[in-house]
Automatic annotation (TrEMBL):
RagB/SusD domain sequence ranges: 339-641
SUPFAM superfamilies assigned: TPR-like (SSF48452)
InterPro entries for this protein: SusD-like_N, SusD_RagB_dom, TPR-like_helical_dom_sf
Family membership noted in the UniProt record: Belongs to the SusD family.
Subcellular location: Cell outer membrane
Domain SusD-like N-terminal: 97-221
Keyword Methyltransferase on entry: no
Protein name per its UniProtKB record: Putative outer membrane protein
Pfam families: SusD-like_3, SusD_RagB
Protein origin, superkingdom: Bacteria
Species annotation: Arcticibacter svalbardensis MN12-7
One cellular component term from this protein's GO annotations in UniProt: cell outer membrane
PROSITE patterns: PROKAR_LIPOPROTEIN
Amino acid sequence: MKTLNKYLNITFLTILLSGLFLSSCQEYLDQDPQSVVSEAVYYKNATQFTNASNNFYTRLGFDYDGDQHTQGDAGSDLSNNLSVTPVYGGGLTAIPTTDAIWTKNYSNLRAVNQLIEKAAIYPGNQTEIAVPLATAYFFRAWHHYNLLRRFGGVPIVTKSLDVNSEEVYAKRNSRYEVVSQILKDLDMAIAGLPTASTLGLTGQGKLSITAAQSFKARVLLYEATWDKYVATTTDGDGVTSGVGSAKPADYPSVTSMLTEAKSLSLAVISGTYFYLWDHRSDIVQGGTTDYSHLFYLYNLEDAGSNPKGLTKADNHEFIFQTVYDFTLRQIRKNLSHSHPVGPSRKLMDMYLCTDGLPVQHSAVFQGYSSMISEFTNRDLRLTSFVNIPLQQYWGYGSATTGGGAQYSKTFATAGTGYDYRYIPVLTSPTGGRGVGYMGNKFVTEYKLREDLTESFNYPQIRLAEVMLIYAESTCELGNGSISDADLNLSINKIRARSGVASLTNALIAPFPDMNMLGEIRRERAIELDGEGFRFDDLKRWNIAPQELNKNVCSCYIAGTEYATVLNPKTGTPIYLASGFSNGLTTSEQSVSSYSGIATTKAGALILDPAGNRNFTIKNYLDPIPSDQITLNPNLKQNPIW
């Protein structure tokens, strides 16, 4: 039977999934005793509306695999994780038969739209259901945005469709019509959601006005820059391919979208309830040296998950988050074992030095000659999220790599007899996800957590991103200029907690290859690495081919300690040239369209050669899955596919 997707003809479930929120959030789990309640008897009172809206949160997951074919930013120019097949970042995708992003988001829209429809005929006072209704509007925008990012223009669905609905066979709406609908829905969400302070800890993970404002700022920046840099080049004619370029009469201009993104983000960062995680002074390793306080932001569970005894209540940076719990809802992904977020050579050199300058200009950069020299005097985001060779690191669980952290003990007195030093893997590309550099973002060291049982929350929106939105929209409005005052409101707060000197106009003035927009984009790449933003950013800036179609490299081998050093645990060489068929770079190579990013010199280990990578404008939008076009011939395929 022809349907928009086979998931539209579903029975609406009114019972919340049992594993959604912390035990302190019992109100989320209040529900009627029946396992399934029909639509005819449901939506009769405010509690039922609340329970139905709570179910929307269960569709959020641990989204380090984002809405791409990849995990986090794996396969991008910043990642050494090339295990995804085919590599999305190389443009090596094909038209799929099915696509989970298409089916799941349209499936989820049915329940959202049903709540909105039932609210219109609710016999009680509308104020009683204002929050669940606003929640539904938010999620309708959320699901449409997921589809927009992936496919461009898609059919807008604002009804709870069944197999007989004419919208099932509708054409795709233009991206501009989709954006217009998203913005309208978010205005409705902002009008009805509560403040974050009224939610408190028991409402952790639930939507607030601040979350809706932040999300709208994200959408506005995304679409304003897409409209500015990509424009209509991916729209197609709407007849033979794509959806065309039809814009609603009231569609906002680039300037108005950037202006509102700036205004909304300023309102968020000016608030007092959310603030950046900053524990430089009280989370230390080895008793003296702080290198990892940001690491604990991403694996925070209960007091046993970190040396300071902090809990999720101490995290006020995550504005909107997927909530997990060891008893109720574990993440169940291969995280700590796989170390999914690791850096490429390019990202390693994008991290700043403590004087606020990149490696090619910094007076405090120590070079690459030893395995640890490039980690000296560097951004705490680097030393928090990338293992330093020969540094000791706890494992996790009862026994993995020596077992989890014992904060009351030193590594030497842990009683395991394990050598906790991290030794780089440079024997073959299949030697592990951490070939050359091992990332540890979204990795636990909890003694009571085995792999798959991690239960830290996932940030869907966090304050640092909103600060970056403010800086970027301000700089775009200023035609590449931004004042030091605006930088101090935003990016410099992020840099401060990262142990990096402030970005100022005077700081970069002596360097012709650096400019403010490039530095703001650098900050975004560094700060949000592994959180699923990289591909979307490169596409909306219209620089994806220039950034992605380069050699993906790792450590410098030639002329460094890596070339000759032996593994102190085994006595065998750390690096085996025979294990890497792509060899080393033989000359200096530009790695970015922004000249402020350090070039890669000769002697770097090539993980994926440029010849394997062919990301083009075609890949800015993914293809509509073939089964959907078969079911609905009115869906025209995206251009070039």
